Amino acid sequence: MQILHTSDWHLNDKLGRIPRQGDIVKRLEEIANYLDEHKVDVMVVAGDLFSQYNRLDELKSAVGEMRDVFQPFLLGGGTIVTISGNHDNEAFFNLMRFALDLADPIDPKKPGARPGGRLYLAAQPTYLLLEDKAGQQVQFVLMPYPTSSRYLKDEITKYGSLDEKNSLLHQAMLEKIDLIKNKHIKPELPSVLVSHAHIRGSQLHNLYRISEREDVVFDAGDIPTNWSYAAYGHIHKAQTLAGTTHVRYSGSIERLDYGERDDEKSVVLVEIGAKGRTQEPAILPLNATPIYRIEINNPEEIPSIKDKYSELDRALVSYKLTYKLGEYNRDAICRELDKIFPRWYDREIVTEGSSISLKSSTLVADTQDVATNVRTYLQQQLAGTPECDAVLALAEQLLANEQFLNNSEVEI
In this entry, which stretches build a coiled coil (predicted)? Predict the structure, then answer.
C-alpha cells in the first residue's frame, strides 16, 4: 500500500491582508500530481485541514476546491483519511462526517476493510481497516487532537486548572491508544498511527497560534513507536522523532508565516507491505511560497531590491520603510513598492528622525480579521467551559451583523 503523509493544510488561511487559499491550492495540485505519479492508495492528512473559525462561505469554497483537486484521485479508487486538529472546528468536522455517512453509508457492524474511493473524517479516536487494489490490508489508528469533548467526556468539568486539564487529556489519549490496540489491532497486519499532537523535543519555531502552555505535550517515549509508520501533524517543521525514520511530522504544506520562512516544505511517501515498511520513507518536495522581511533605510535602495530577492511577484513580504520628510513623497514610494511587492502583507513606514511610525497591514482594518480575532479570543478564554458553545453562537450572531463589522473599521 502506497501512503502519502501530509498535514496542516490550513485551508483559507490569511497572512495579514493576504488570503492564502490560492497558494495552498497550488500546493494541493502538486500533491495531486504526486498521488498520480506514485500510484498512491491512501493520502493521510494528519490534522488542521482548515484554519480555525472560517466562515461558512469560506468553508464551502475550501471544500469545493479540495473536491476539484482530488476528485480524480477518489474516482480512481484512492482514499483520503483525515483527522481533526486543533484548528479544525469540531462541529463542522462532525457535520461533514455525518453528511458523508448519509451520502455513502457504511455498516459499522460489517467486518473487513472499509471501501476505498472516499474521504474518511475522524473527529473521534477511530480504528480503520483499509486495503489497496491488490488486497493488501493496513490498519489505521486515528487519534485527533486531544480536546475535552473527544477524550474526557464526563470528566469535562472535573479539572480545576489548565495544567490539570492537560494532564487528564494526556492520560486519556494514551489510554485510548492502548484500548484501540488491545481491542482492534491484529498483530499479523501492519498498522499506521495518525495523530495530531505535540511531541516534546521536536524542533519548532511556533505552534501556529497556540502556546505550549495551552498544549498537551507528550514525551517521545509516551506514545508507542512500534508502528509500521506513525504520521504526525501539528508541528509545521518536517522532522523525524524518537531517533527513528518512520515516526515523523510531515510539516505544513505551505509556509504560513515568517517563522516558517526557511522551512523546506514537503510530503512523505511510505510503502507498507504485508510485514510492514518495504523501504525508508521518501520525501517529496513542495514549491512553497517565499516569505521575506525587508528593511529599506533609504528610498535610493529600492531599484536594487529586485536583484537581492527572488520571485517577488509571488513572495509574501513584510517591509519597513524609512524616509526623509520633505525630500521624498511617501505615497509615491508606497505606490512603487506596491508594484515591486504586490503581495506585501505587513508594513511599517517611519519618518527619519521621528519616533512615530505607521504600522499597518492595510490602510483600513480588514473586517474578516476583526471577526477572526473575536472568535479566537473567545475560544481561548472559554475553552473547556460549559458556556463555550452558547457564547460562541451569540458571537456569531453579532459578527454576522454587517453594521458591527462596518463599525469595526478603523481608518488610519
Answer: none
- Which residue's C-alpha cell is 517529496? 284
Q: Within the chain, which residues score under 70 in pLDDT?
A: 52-54, 154-158, 206-212, 354-373, 376, 379-380, 383-384, 386, 396-397, 399-412
Q: Tell me, what's the pLDDT at 121?
A: 94
pLDDT for 208 equals 65
What is the C-alpha separation between 364 and 31, in angstroms, rounded? Answer: 36
Three-state secondary structure readout of the chain: CEEEEECCCCECCEECCEECHHHHHHHHHHHHHHHHHCCCCEEEECCCCECCCCCHHHHHHHHHHHHHHHHHHHHCCCEEEEECCCCCCHHHHHHHHHHHHHHCCCCCCCCCCCCCCCEEEECCCEEEEEECCCCCEEEEEEECCCCHHHHCHHHHHCCCCHHHHHHHHHHHHHHHHHHHHHHCCCCCCCEEEEEECEECCCCCCCCCCCCHHHCCEECCCCCCCCCCEEEEECCCCCEECCCCCCEEECCCCCCCCHHHCCCCCEEEEEEEECCEECCCCEEEECCCCCEEEEEECCHHHHHHHHHHCCCCCCCEEEEEEEECECCECHHHHHHHHHHHCCCEEEEEEEECCCCCEEEECCCECCHHHHHHHHHHHHHHHHCCCCCHHHHHHHHHHHHCCHHHHHHCCCEC
| Residues 223 and 193: beta-carbon distance below 8 Å | yes
Confidence (pLDDT) at 358: 62
- Which amino acid does the sequence have at 67? R
Please identify, in words, the CATH class of the domain defined by 2-285.
alpha beta
Q: Is 251 left (phi over 0), alpha (psi -120 to 50) or beta?
A: left
Cα 132 to the chain's mean position, in Å?
Answer: 27
> Residue 157 has what pLDDT?
57
State residue 412's pLDDT score.
Answer: 28
